[in-house]
Q: What sequence folds into this?
């Protein structure tokens, strides 16, 4: 079976994306995570370009803990007029102490003429000299044929000449790059097949996503004979990004049936995607294919009924293969199948003919018509279901609360204070607390009042707070929906509240958050 080598450039090309900045420690941690994933080549950066990349190579070579991956240094061919052994970029690659280097060279005559401003022949010399010198000092050298597809379309004879120079110089791999990201899949196949007739060196593919074709072009290149695939985790990269390895890898392994990483490693794909997003301080893309939270989420009643009988009806793969999971959503589109699935998930005994099931469906549709949304608030929905069958426990009763927002000086932030009166059993508790806003003050006061009765609430924290105006035309009289995400040491859950008063909507969501925790812990 053909084995496709996976080459990750998240730490170099991915870092060129807007809003992405990894520290040296971040890059080391990501490199280890990529190694666990079974990535064959990890491009650590351009050691001659910035202090951060220089530090990365120093750190990563001090304690090489990599099980499988080869760490790669990136750079360009020597500059015109520089002897290759004295070229700063070439020297920086060798000083990085890696055994594998990737250098890019110009293959589009437009770039040779307008960017480098040298002759076509001299450019061929730059490619040959750089690769031959590196190959004499390193165990493996990869040539990135920059702008190859644009160059081939304009001047195929010259573009191929650059590849032959790389081959003559002893390059172990020649990687065809769609640097501007504008190639179409049919062009990819046609050009790749023509190159294969001219070049014997193993070929790779490096695509960008400017035409939303990076993954498609990568797969077409593999079908056409590419044996090395470049990309980044989550598709990070300059402009519109690079080929997304979180889609490329499962497409190669599960769709094409080709070997790239093991089944066990494939099961870590979602984990790796989320890990890199966390270190990049970016929210995980919910709708990302394969690894997104919504990738295997079902909402329509007909869909849910079908996947309960056979998941294959609406799922192209088993989500567990890439570390994801099936999710059933609840909304005004839900039917009894959605409710029964969620009841089974929550351990609530419902029959399909149970009047409680019909009542939950009707109540759900009425509440969503009023502005509630339970797709991101499954904690509130579980409480709703438990209440419908008489299994929701009540842990306290509100006797009243007051929230004061006071601004004393123009140049100071307002002060928020909440006072709350609750009854727990027969004991009345009156508590006050401050916060950095009225909702935070109310949250602090409620927790402060309850923690002495329910110490487990000390582990609960508010993770996220979202507010949405439901009818902007009504201005300040519009209904407000508040979605809260809470968590403890073991899990996270969402709750929702809706009211024309933002404090009341927040209160509803806060109460559900605490009652969800207590209902789960005290059963």
A:
């Amino acid at each position: 079976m053909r084995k496709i080598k996976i080459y990750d450039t998240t730490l170099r090309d991915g870092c060129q994306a807007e809003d992405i900045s990894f520290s040296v420690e971040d890059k080391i941690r990501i490199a280890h995570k990529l190694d666990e994933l079974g990535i064959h080549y990890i491009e650590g950066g351009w050691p001659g370009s910035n202090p951060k990349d220089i530090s990365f190579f120093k750190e990563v070579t001090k304690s090489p803990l990599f099980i499988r991956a080869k760490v790669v240094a990136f750079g360009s061919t020597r500059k015109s007029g520089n002897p290759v052994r004295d070229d700063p970029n070439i020297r920086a690659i060798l000083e990085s102490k890696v055994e594998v280097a990737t250098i890019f060279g110009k293959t589009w005559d437009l770039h040779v003429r307008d960017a480098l401003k040298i002759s076509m022949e001299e450019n061929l010399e730059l490619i040959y000299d750089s690769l031959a010198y590196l190959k004499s000092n390193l165990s493996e050298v990869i040539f990135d044929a920059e702008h190859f597809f644009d160059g081939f379309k304009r001047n195929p004879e010259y573009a191929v000449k650059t590849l032959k120079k790389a081959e003559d110089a002893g390059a172990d791999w020649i990687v065809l790059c769609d640097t501007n990201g504008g190639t179409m899949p049919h062009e990819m196949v046609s050009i790749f097949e023509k190159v294969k007739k001219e070049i014997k060196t193993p070929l790779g593919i490096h695509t960008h996503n400017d035409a939303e074709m990076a993954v498609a072009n990568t797969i077409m290149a593999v079908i056409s004979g590419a044996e090395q695939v470049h990309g980044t985790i989550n598709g990070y990269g300059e402009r519109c990004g690079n080929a997304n390895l979180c889609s490329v890898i499962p497409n190669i392994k599960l769709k094409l049936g080709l070997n790239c990483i093991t089944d066990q490693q494939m099961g870590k794909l979602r984990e790796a995607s989320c890990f890199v997003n966390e270190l990049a301080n970016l929210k995980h893309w919910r709708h990302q294919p394969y690894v997104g939270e919504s990738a295997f989420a079902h909402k329509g009643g007909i869909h849910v009924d079908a996947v309960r009988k056979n998941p294959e009806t609406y799922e192209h793969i088993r989500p567990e293969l890439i570390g994801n999971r099936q999710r059933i959503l609840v909304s005004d589109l839900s039917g009894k199948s959605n409710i029964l699935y969620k009841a089974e998930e929550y351990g609530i005994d419902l029959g399909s003919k149970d009047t409680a099931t019909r009542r939950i469906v009707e109540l759900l549709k009425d509440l969503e018509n009023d502005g509630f949304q339970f797709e991101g608030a499954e904690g509130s929905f579980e409480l709703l279901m438990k209440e419908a069958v008489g299994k929701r426990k009540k842990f306290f009763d509100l006797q009243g609360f007051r929230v004061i927002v006071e601004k004393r000086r123009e140049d100071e932030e307002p002060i928020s204070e909440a006072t709350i009166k609750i009854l727990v059993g027969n004991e009345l508790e009156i508590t006050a607390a401050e916060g950095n806003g009225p909702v935070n003050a109310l949250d602090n006061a409620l927790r402060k009042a309850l923690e002495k009765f329910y110490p487990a609430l000390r582990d609960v924290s508010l993770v996220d707070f979202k507010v949405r105006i439901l009818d902007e035309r009504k201005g300040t009289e519009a209904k407000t929906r508040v979605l809260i995400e809470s968590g403890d040491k073991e899990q996270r859950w969402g709750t929702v509240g809706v009211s024309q008063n933002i404090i009341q909507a927040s209160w509803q969501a806060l109460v559900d958050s605490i009652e969800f925790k207590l209902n789960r812990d005290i059963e």
Notes: The chain has a mean pLDDT of 89. The chain has three domains: 5-261, 297-386, 396-453.
